[in-house]
């Protein structure tokens, strides 16, 4: 199903602090994910569902988005950029970006958080919005722990009854999945030129005012890639084909090799790993479910699981990484074992580690 030509606003102004050090140089939406900048997956999907024109709402490192996506013609889209000098929050960003929309007030406009992988049917969401004449229609999904998200209870008719952003004791597991259809005229009611949170201000006040805010609930693949663990998971899921993406630069499978990548026949590379351009995996190394960036090296006998190895970084012989982020150009000396959540900053050199714990022998 495809809607007639739709306009979209893409929210990409966040700093991505939870993904440091990966986001020190690159905004979260541009991090290489399954071989292409993260947003390429979202944009290709949006296009497949009828979006033809996208307004990027940028702030942090705005010029990098233009360098990567230009005018959008490579993707069959028209992309324009609206930049906030200081971040205006999600609602302020939507209002600011709306100045670049071309559609009339009665048109639906798609609004996307720029850090979401989703398998849901955008065109069906737009269809529901239009057929029910809603002010806003929110994509909703269910997660085990709703406390990190916008909690969204609904009535039997799909009407949203409250919007409770990041509450300590969520009243439901149903959450805001970060993809909205707005009536253009509703966006125009958000105050201009000031910081506004769509989650904490706009949605609660629309509900309070009795406007029809609808939920489009589904249970397709969904992931917010805002943490290192989720980012690695998203990349691996795309490579494995758990979520179809028109932007995947190769067939889905256990691994994806980018141009110039060299993997020894005696290495084991599995679980949706991406091996970046000119990256090397030496004999006896084992890499599972990981993102190896361009020009990095995983030396012989090293083990890398559910981790990110940054551009030009080196993991020496026998080192073990599990759920670790290694920054660009960092060097992990032989024998180091790094676990759950460790982040190595760019350029750091960890010397050889010869200490062995008794449980290892
Ligand atoms: N332009 C602009 N300006 N964009 C912004 C700003 C801003 O001031 N602040 C945040 N964004 C963008 C981020 O880049 C991201 O794409 C999106 O808005 C959401 O921000 P996050 O920082 O990722 O929010 P979150 O993940 O904690 O929560 C949001 O997403 C959840 C779903 O993943 C909320 O919308 C929750 O309600 C929702 O459940
Ligand atoms: Mg997020």
UniProtKB/TrEMBL annotation:
<feature type="domain" description="Nucleotidyl transferase">
    <location>
        <begin position="8"/>
        <end position="237"/>
    </location>
</feature>
<dbReference type="InterPro" id="IPR005835">
    <property type="entry name" value="NTP_transferase_dom"/>
</dbReference>
<feature type="domain" description="Mannose-1-phosphate guanyltransferase C-terminal">
    <location>
        <begin position="253"/>
        <end position="335"/>
    </location>
</feature>
<protein>
    <submittedName>
        <fullName>GDP-mannose pyrophosphorylase</fullName>
    </submittedName>
</protein>
<dbReference type="InterPro" id="IPR029044">
    <property type="entry name" value="Nucleotide-diphossugar_trans"/>
</dbReference>
<dbReference type="InterPro" id="IPR050486">
    <property type="entry name" value="Mannose-1P_guanyltransferase"/>
</dbReference>
<comment type="similarity">
    <text>Belongs to the transferase hexapeptide repeat family.</text>
</comment>
<dbReference type="Pfam" id="PF00483">
    <property type="entry name" value="NTP_transferase"/>
</dbReference>
<dbReference type="InterPro" id="IPR056729">
    <property type="entry name" value="GMPPB_C"/>
</dbReference>
<dbReference type="Pfam" id="PF25087">
    <property type="entry name" value="GMPPB_C"/>
</dbReference>
């Amino acid at each position: 199903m495809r809607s007639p030509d739709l306009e979209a606003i893409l929210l990409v102004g966040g700093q991505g602090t939870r993904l440091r050090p990966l986001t020190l140089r690159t905004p979260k939406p541009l991090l290489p994910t399954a071989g292409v900048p993260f947003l390429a997956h979202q944009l290709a999907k949006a296009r497949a569902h009828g979006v033809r024109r996208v307004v990027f709402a940028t702030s942090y490192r705005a010029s990098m988005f233009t360098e990567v996506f230009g005018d959008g013609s490579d993707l069959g889209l028209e992309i324009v950029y609206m930049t906030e000098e200081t971040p205006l929050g999600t609602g302020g960003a939507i209002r600011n970006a709306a100045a670049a929309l071309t559609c009339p007030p009665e048109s639906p406009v798609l609004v996307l958080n720029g850090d979401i992988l989703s398998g849901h049917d955008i065109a069906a969401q737009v269809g529901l919005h239009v057929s029910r004449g809603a002010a806003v229609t929110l994509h909703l999904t269910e997660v085990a722990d709703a406390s990190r998200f916008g909690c969204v209870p609904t009535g039997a008719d799909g009407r949203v009854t409250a919007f409770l952003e990041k509450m300590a004791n969520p009243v439901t597991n149903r959450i805001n999945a970060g993809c909205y259809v707005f009536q253009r005229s509703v966006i125009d009611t958000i105050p201009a030129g000031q910081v506004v949170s769509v989650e904490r201000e706009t949605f609660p006040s629309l509900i309070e005012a009795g406007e029809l805010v609808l939920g489009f609930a589904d249970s397709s693949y969904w992931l917010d890639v805002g943490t290192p663990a989720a980012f690695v998971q998203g990349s691996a899921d795309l490579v494995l084909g758990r979520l179809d993406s028109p932007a995947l630069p190769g067939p889905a499978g256990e691994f994806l090799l980018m141009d110039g990548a060299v993997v020894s026949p005696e290495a084991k590379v599995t679980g949706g790993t991406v091996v970046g351009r000119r990256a090397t995996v030496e004999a006896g190394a084992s890499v599972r479910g990981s993102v190896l960036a361009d020009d990095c090296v995983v030396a012989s006998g090293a083990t890398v699981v559910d981790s990110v190895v940054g551009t030009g970084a080196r993991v020496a012989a026998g080192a073990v990484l599990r759920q670790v982020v290694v920054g660009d150009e960092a060097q992990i000396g032989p024998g180091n074992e790094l676990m759950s959540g460790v982040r190595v900053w760019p350029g750091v050199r960890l010397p050889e580690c010869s200490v062995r714990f008794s449980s290892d022998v």
